Structures are given as structure tokens and as C-alpha cells.
Amino acid sequence: MKRNFQPETLMMSHGYRPEWSEGAVKCPIFQTSTFAFRTAEEGKAFFELAYGLRERGNREKTGLIYSRINNPDMEILEERLKLWDGAEACAAFESGMSAITTVLFEFLQPGDLLLYSNPLYGGTSHFVHHVLTKWGIEVRGFRPGATREEIVRIIGQSGKRDRLGMIFLETPANPTNDLVDIAMCRSVADQFSVSGRRVLVAVDNTYMGPLWQHPLRHGADLVLYSATKYIGGHSDVIAGACLGSADLIARVKTLRTFLGNMIAPNTGWLLLRSLETLKLRMEKQAENAQIVARRLAAHPKVDRVHYLGLLTPADGEAYDIYRRQCTSPGAMVSFEIKGGEHEAFAFLNHLKLVKLAVSLGSTESLAQHPATMTHAGVDPEEKAAFGITESLVRLSVGVENAEDLWWDLEQALEKVPACAELPVELEAV
Ligand SMILES: *Cc1c(COP(=O)(O)O)cnc(C)c1O
């Protein structure tokens, strides 16, 4: 009899055997740069595989060579990350940005067109606009909520319809929780694919993954993570990952070997530890977020709350995408305080428990002001178009006691000056 264990069950053991390390129940940190070959012939065989100099034999694995190419902490971490997304292969990186930039460099060439969803994470946006364009890659964005027709029109107007290389998505979008339909983008990618040249769909799944959204099941080719966020989950590491088919990830790993931006043994080991509690943490965070979001929506000093758990059938397309694509509303809540920057800052400055910091997905709750912090670099017109207003606060909900959290949010809201907005006709007097 055999049972297919769930990922949360496998996070403590999958990919590691105690007999490899003196019976140690936990995978040690393999803090070594290089690995001894048993014989020169073995060393030769490993390098032949690493450089693709010959076909891999049946069940033959590349042995351990050098920690820029492979290391047990990195490989075991990759094996475990694969389980959540049901991916064939995974490549772990020293940061989310290194995962994203390596994928963009590997799969795009000068003259190609990159289509992306707006708004993008600040670091990704900078790379797309200021680095990829220097390498002769054409870039075009579409607005949150864009229809299939609009997206196809943007591709047509670029004059590069035969050179579309990749569609890069972030859904839900940071910080507004706007949703993009991954399956619809797959169908656009198929429309512009020709035989021998598949248009790839890559999804930055940092906001919902790896638990609450599985882009590969909706037609994505590549899933990207800042593992700094939920996967790490304790605000103590910077790391990243990319998942997809064995063929695509083999290409990503080859470029990673030459850029040298692989995850370090100690960071890989920290993530192995984090993965053991991933589901527990994320479920508690989502539970807390639902309580907090509902109460914020009813608070007199709050104008609007952007949270997937508050979508209703009246929200139309967004609600449908949410039901199809996500298995939980997640733990990212953003909300507009009545007023503007002054009121939002008053709230942030009076928080006692919640830390005023960027980043997300950690055990402790974090709050920040996207317009002047994470999205400070977005041009003002785009900020307005994407809903990144002066009064918007983004909250990453942690695992604290929900009543303690609400106590803090409520006391900070009380300190927000009552909004001095006067009716227009009175102001004119
Ligand atoms: C943080 C983040 C990144 C960048 O990841 P790093 O680990 O900081 O390099 C990319 N995308 C999203 C959505 C993020 O939140």
C-alpha cells in the first residue's frame, strides 16, 4: 500500500535521508564550496552532464560538484518547493529579483516584445523599463482589468506582434489586489505562438503562493517567487525561486550557474525550516486578515478596503477570476483612509504593535504607504491610473492574536485627525 502524502506532510522529510548524514534527522547545512569525487572518472562523468556534453543515462543524476552548480540544501529545497505548485522542476535563487531577472534574460532576446500586467513590483518595473530596454527589448504594459481585446490591441499596436516573447503577470497586483486572468493570458500567448516559438507566460506568485494560487494549473509556463515573503516567512532572509517544466528550468539553471546567483547553503537551510510551518502560518495569516479586513471596511475613518475576501458577485469579472484562480483570499489587505497622505501617515505613526516596514508575508504584521514607499518610483499618472492613492495603506497580516491586532489598528485609526474635507460649496465661501 502506498499513500500520496500532502505537501505539508512532506515538508519535514521529502528529498532527504538521515543515513546521508550520520543519522541526523534534520538536513544539515552543507556549508562547503566544493565536493570530493570518488574517482577521476566520476568527476569526468559529472561534468559531462553538467555541461550537457552527452545524453543523461537512464536515472543518472548529476553528482555534487561545486556549490555554484549544486548543493544538497539547494537541491532538497527545490524538491520540496516543487510539491506545492505541482511543478516538474524548480531553481532556487539568492533573491526574488535574481529569479525574475534570470528568467527575463534567459527567455527574451533583442528585438523581442515583453508584455506585462500593471502595476508591477517596483524592482521588476525598474528592470523591465531601464535594463531590458537597454538590451533592445520592447516592453508594453496593460492596465489592471484589461480585457482580452485590449491586450491583443496593445500587442498589435506595438508593431511587434510576430516577436512577442513573454507575457509577465503579477496577480493579485501589489498593492491593490487587482486580479489578472491567467488562463485568458495563456490563450493570448497561444494566439501569438508559432510552431517552434511558444510565447511563455510567467507569473510572479509572491502574493498568494505557494499555498493559495497555482499558476501552472491555469496555463502558466513559469512561476516566480520572492521566497523572502511567505516561503521564508520570518523577515530574516532574502531568497527567490522559479518553477516550471524540466526543460525550461534546465535553461534557467544553466544561466544561474553562470550568473552565480544561486541560493547559499545557509539560506536554503533556513527556508527548509520555514517550509515546515508554511501552511500553518499562511492559514493563520489569512484567518486574521479576514477578521481585520471586515472590521476595517466597517470603520468610519476608512473609505475603501481592497481585499479578495470582500469581493462579491457584484464585482463581476474580478469575483469570477478570484473564484477560479485562488483558494483563499490571502493575507494582504490594502485600504484607503479618509483624507490623504497626512491622515495615512498619522495612522502609520501611531501603530504600536504592527511594524512600519515594507516587505510582506511574515509572521509579524507590517504596514506601509505604497505611494511614497514601495511604489515611490511609479510615475504620478500611472499611480493614479492603478489606484495607488495618497491615502492608501498596505497591510501584511501576520500570525498575532487577531484581537491584539485589531486593538492596534483601531487605536491608530482613532489618532487619525477627522478628515477636514468640507463640501465644495462651503469651501468656496
Ligand atoms: C519582494 C518582491 C519581489 C522581489 O523579491 P526580493 O526577494 O526582494 O528580491 C518581487 N515580486 C514581488 C511581488 C515582491 O513582493
Describe the structure.
- This protein has helices at about 5-10, 40-50, 70-85, 95-105, 120-130, 150-155, 180-190, 245-260, 265-275, 280-295, 315-325, 340-350, 380-385, 400-415, 425-429; strands at about 90-95, 115, 140, 165-170, 200-205, 220-225, 240-245, 300-305, 330-335, 355, 365-370, 390-395.
- It has about 425 residues and is α/β, with parallel strands linked by helices.
- The chain has 2 domains: about 65-275, 3-Layer(aba) Sandwich (Aspartate Aminotransferase, domain 2); about 280-425, Aspartate Aminotransferase, domain 1 (Alpha-Beta Complex), CATH 3.90.1150.10.
- The strands form 2 sheets. A 7-stranded mixed sheet has the order 1-7-6-5-4-2-3, sandwiched between helices. Strands 8-9-12-11-10 form a 5-stranded mixed sheet, with helices on one face.
- The protein binds pyridoxal-5'-phosphate.
Short description:
This protein has 429 residues and is α/β, with parallel strands linked by helices. The protein is 37% helix and 14% strand. The strands form two sheets. It has a seven-stranded mixed beta sheet, sandwiched between helices.
Give me some keywords for this one.
429 residues; alpha/beta; Aspartate Aminotransferase, domain 2; Aspartate Aminotransferase, domain 1; 2 domains; seven-stranded mixed beta sheet; five-stranded mixed beta sheet; 15 helices; binds pyridoxal-5'-phosphate
Q: Any chance you could write out the topology, listing elements then pairs?
A:
Layout: H1 7-10, H2 40-50, H3 72-85, E1 89-93, H4 96-107, E2 113-117, H5 122-131, E3 138-142, H6 148-157, E4 164-170, H7 182-191, E5 200-204, E6 222-226, E7 240-244, H8 246-259, H9 265-276, H10 278-297, E8 302-306, H11 317-325, E9 332-337, H12 341-349, E10 355-356, E11 366-368, H13 380-386, E12 392-396, H14 402-414, H15 424-428
Parallel strand pairs: 2-3, 2-4, 4-5, 5-6, 10-11
Antiparallel strand pairs: 1-7, 6-7, 8-9, 9-12, 11-12
Helix pairs in contact: 3-9, 12-14
The chain binds pyridoxal-5'-phosphate (PLP).
